[in-house]
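Hi V.,

Quick status before I head out on leave. The structure for the redesign project is tokenized and pasted below; the design run finished overnight.
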């Protein structure tokens, strides 16, 4: 079964799915349902779930461990994928503003600087660039929730969608 229930809805659904014994009868696949923000509430109920996302705390990319540690030190919790995307976005915009020397009033120059920064960004999500329609081209990863001793954690299974682009890039007029 595939579900998309972020946040509290996902916690309730996964717990009920597990309590009903369905984890033993069918796989539970999700996007943004089981992640670092929901796992502390789900614990054993999430073991066995497989999730797809463009980022997770289990991701082994340059800078990701440092980002997670700094975020945890400042906020006292594990970052969400929203925080990871926000972090990358802030880095990208900082690069773009520097490229135009702070002159964001020149819209065409700033747009070009954002696109150029996208090509140079060292994303904690892995490979990243903007497509011709200005949408991200990025990896989507598969993760599985596992139990290691008494700890419930997530491991990366692979990258089923490397350099994934949106399906409508050829039809998009915003180029």
């Amino acid at each position: 079964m595939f579900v998309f229930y972020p946040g509290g809805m996902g916690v309730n659904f996964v717990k009920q799915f597990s309590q009903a014994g369905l984890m033993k009868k069918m796989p539970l696949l999700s996007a943004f349902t089981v992640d670092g923000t929901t796992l502390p509430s789900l614990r054993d109920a999430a073991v066995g779930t497989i999730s797809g996302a463009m980022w997770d705390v289990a991701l082994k990319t340059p800078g990701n461990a440092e980002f997670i540690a700094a975020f945890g030190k400042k906020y006292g919790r594990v970052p969400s994928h929203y925080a990871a995307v926000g972090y990358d976005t802030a880095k990208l915009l900082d690069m773009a503003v520097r490229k135009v020397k702070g002159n964001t009033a020149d819209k065409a120059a700033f747009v070009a600087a954002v696109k150029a920064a996208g090509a140079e960004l060292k994303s904690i999500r892995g490979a990243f660039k903007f497509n011709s329609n200005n949408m991200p081209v990025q990896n989507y990863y598969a993760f599985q929730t596992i139990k290691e001793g008494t700890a419930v954690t997530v491991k990366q299974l692979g990258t089923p969608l490397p350099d994934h682009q949106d399906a409508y890039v050829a039809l998009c007029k915003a180029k």
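Above is the designed sequence. The radius of gyration is 18 Å.

G. will cover questions while I'm gone.

Best,
W.
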